[in-house]
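Practice set, problem 2.
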Amino acid sequence: MSCQARERVVNLAPNRIREVAELGFHMPDVIPLWFGESDRPTPDFIKQAAVQALADNRVFYTPNSGVPALRDAVCDYHAGVYGWEVTRDRVTVTASGMQGIMLTMQALVEPGDEVVIVSPEWPNAAGATEVMGGRAVEVPLTLANGTWSLEVERVAAACNARTRAICVNSPNNPTGWVIDEDTARELLALCRRRGIWLICDDVYNRIVYGRDHAPLIAAMAEPDDRVVSINSFSKAWNMTGWRLGWIVAPAALEKTFQVLTEFNISGPTAFVQYAGIAALRDGEDFIADNRADLQRCREMVLERLAAMPGLAATRPQGAFYAFFRVPGLTDSLAFAKRLLTEAGVGLAPGSAFGACGEGFLRLCYATRPETVAKALDRLEGFFSRKAT
């Protein structure tokens, strides 16, 4: 008798970012810029809210959909930041943005369904699709004159009778592309015409340069449109290790998400949810200050990369990554491993984000400027040696 798991799960491709990181963890003096994570700790006011929740014995089971106070705080947050009125029955609290993606795929994707994914994109959305027996179909962003854009006609051409959903991440990881309002409305109209779900990964929505937030497609939709917005506390509030997020979806999905949450985690961690309330209600100053720090770091990274021989980095409009092409690169995974051993810098291979990411590397600059500068010094030395 075989002890093997389901064939589809066994055959899932490993996460190439994690593959580089696992190798680098065992190397001394590596500068790790592979994950999408700030090295700045969670703000004290959020941590103190968790401490107070523990003191108040917020340590028991919570409702599957999350504590009502956090669901209400999510509604208030959307109203205050976006002018978007959301009712509590549309909000489900999740144990991370990733769990929100997985719940959504469990709710929507049948074996044989197709999910069109705007790429390059963080690989887990495609992976979650495949876990459910679906097929991920990549539609690449267009890169022209140093700018990324989305051609909705190409998305439409990739859809067919088996297409269950379109998945879009804006601001985008890894490119920093941000969807504009006209394109967002065009994409929404396509989904309405075809009866296709639109799954929006909005975790970087507040990390956008020159404005307070990126366009939010779900805020343009009607309450019963087939639109799911998935968000997380990880990026905008520096809460990666807390594992907390939320979904906003049509109210008709509330019961489905409740049942699926019961079978996955029963409910998010109780005291962590009260930290989330503090983040939403008191976090605007932190978000603004953090965004300003990231913008300064972005400028340094772009200036330094532009001076290195042959590299072509696009200017990210949002998120906190430099996604740059290396001339002649055909195996970014092997090259990222080489950078570990020869330069002591850990970057994510572009191929981790889909086939259209091959030839690129991703550098996360959500790190102290002196650390990023040290990594850039090493990269400069490496590419200078490579060019001679």
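Problem 2, part (b): a different protein.
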Amino acid sequence: MLEIVSCLDNMVKGAAGQAVENMNLMYGFDETTAIDFIPPAF
């Protein structure tokens, strides 16, 4: 028996989005720079 568990980190709602927001604020950019796009569908 094989069980596969996966988790997707949405760029806008997950930890990755928070990291991008923090980097933007750290470098003086607008908070939503580079995360206000629609991600491609797979």
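Answer key, part (b): The two ends are 28 Å apart (CA to CA). The mean pLDDT is 78.
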